[in-house]
Design a protein that fits this description.
The protein has about 475 residues and is of the alpha/beta class. It has 18 helices and 20 strands.
Length: about 475
């Protein structure tokens, strides 16, 4: 056995058993939870000399967060276009990334993945930069082809997430309008294979299609995406009706997916901020899921995703942290609270969404919509031992009136003491244990500053930092 965690207030986020309990759990050599129980750990376990023991001293222990919608390559662009809505904000990133090379996006992805882990996010669905630059015109609702980067632009992003130690599902865009169909289909197949080859087995949650029909020119894009889903046995998550700009044209493309036979449990809608009643009903009846990005929807002024409406219709919902360039702080507690409070305000009902509800959305619910709930998302026997240690007393939050309310509403990154993946410590007091963390920040600053310079922009602290060095 690898590790015994005890003297803990455990929040398992399991649909079976209590919402929390004082207890312990045992992590096996395979990194999975081998046993879990209430009360003090058995003395015979504590006496085993080969077993590492983690006494958390009454701190809260909960599953690592799952971000079901992320763009890790954006970690070097936090604070970019702070007053822009979706499309102008995207264009700012396009201008930077068009000046980047494969190793630049490696370091940005690595930095983003280490940041996730340090903030308690242990699993992520990662939309990789598609290596093909598209300048989408919301007026004509069509993409304009820009730069086509080498394949390494994508594979190095896979390497970045893998080297950080994050569990990841890599989402790959088909780029079907960038070249002959047989060529782009072949590249997609190669990328699916590379996703598995470049990511350690325990970290690899699978590959997926980065659904791009919202920006496509013809229904053929939907047909090809569905063909890739069936051929490779992968899921699809599509950004859809995210912003109010050109909303009628966006909604019309919903039928492209429907006619192509895309809908089912392996199809997810990311954002889904502005759907019609008919769209909601169709998503519910076909078993599709929705992924909610509360923070980024607010930051970009995209609108309010009515998650309560979706759940009442019978739709499964997960939660994501989206781009680090539009959440700026990859804070799952902040994401939960923004979503929770906005929902309550919109409904003028403080009980319409409770702390337990939003915590489940960002853990087990996200794992469920991604189809990986057999491995991650809760603390249960047989699942990976991915967990966070959160001390509600440091800094002190006062008496605990409700354990889940304290965890979701009163705690945050300041209370996060340790993060474990498969029973292995990956972050302590906000600092990564990875040796790459010592150089990741410097590499990212140097490379993003250079990319900005090639674009013709000097970052505001460039000269000041140079003088201080």
């Amino acid at each position: 056995m690898r590790l015994l965690v005890h003297n803990a207030l455990i929040i398992p986020v399991s649909d079976a058993g209590p919402a929390w309990f004082a207890g312990w759990f045992l992590v096996g050599d395979d990194g999975r939870i081998a046993a879990i129980g209430e009360g003090p750990a058995d003395a015979s376990l504590l006496a085993q000399t080969h077993l590492r023991v983690l006494d958390v001293g009454g701190a809260l222990v909960a599953p690592g967060f799952v971000s079901a919608h992320s763009h890790l390559f954006t970690s070097g662009m936090r604070g970019i276009s702070p007053g822009s809505t979706l499309y102008p904000w995207v264009m700012s990133m396009v201008e930077v990334l068009d000046r980047c090379e494969p190793d630049d996006v490696y370091w940005s992805t690595l930095h983003g993945a280490l940041d996730f882990l340090a903030n308690g996010v242990t699993s992520a669905y990662n939309f990789m930069h598609p290596r093909v630059t598209w300048r989408y015109d919301p007026v004509t609702a069509s993409p304009v082809l820009g730069r086509i980067a080498p394949v390494e632009f994508a594979t190095r992003q896979m390497d970045g997430a893998a080297d950080a130690g994050l569990r990841v599902m890599n989402a790959i865009r088909l780029n079907d309008e960038a070249g002959p169909e047989d060529e782009v289909v072949g590249v997609f197949a190669d990328m699916v294979a590379e996703s598995s080859l470049r990511t350690p087995t325990d970290q690899h949650l699978g590959a997926s299609v980065m659904g791009a029909v919202q920006w496509a020119s013809t229904p053929r894009s939907a047909e090809l995406e569905v063909a890739m889903m069936r051929t490779h046995g992968v899921s699809n998550q599509a950004h859809f009706v995210e912003t109010a700009e050109g909303i009628e044209t966006q909604r019309e493309k919903f039928a492209w997916y429907d006619d192509a036979g895309a809908f089912g449990p392996d199809f997810l809608f990311g954002h889904f901020v502005h759907p019609t009643d008919e769209m909601v009903a169709r998503v519910a009846s076909t078993g599709c899921g929705v992924v909610w990005q509360a923070t980024s929807n607010g930051r970009l002024g995209s609108g309010f995703a009515d998650v309560v409406r979706f759940q009442r219709a019978g739709i499964q919902v997960g939660m994501g942290l989206d781009d680090q360039s539009c959440t700026d702080i990859s804070d799952p507690w902040g994401n939960m609270r923004i979503g929770l409070y906005t929902t309550r305000a919109m409904y003028t009902d403080a009980s319409v969404m409770m702390p337990a509800d939003v915590l489940r959305l960002h853990t087990l619910g996200s794992a469920e919509v991604l189809g990986v709930a057999d491995r991650v998302g809760s603390l249960e026997v047989g699942k990976m031992a991915d967990f966070v240690v959160v001390d509600h007393r440091a800094p002190d939050t006062g008496p605990v009136w409700d354990v889940l309310a304290t965890y979701v509403l009163a705690c945050g990154l300041r209370n996060l003491k340790q993060v474990y993946v498969g029973g292995v410590l990956v972050s302590e007091d906000g600092r990564s244990t990875s040796p790459l963390a010592a150089v990741a920040g410097g590499e990212l600053r140097t490379r993003m500053t250079a990319a900005a310079s090639r674009w013709g922009r000097e970052l505001p602290l460039t000269t000041i930092e140079a003088r201080l060095e």
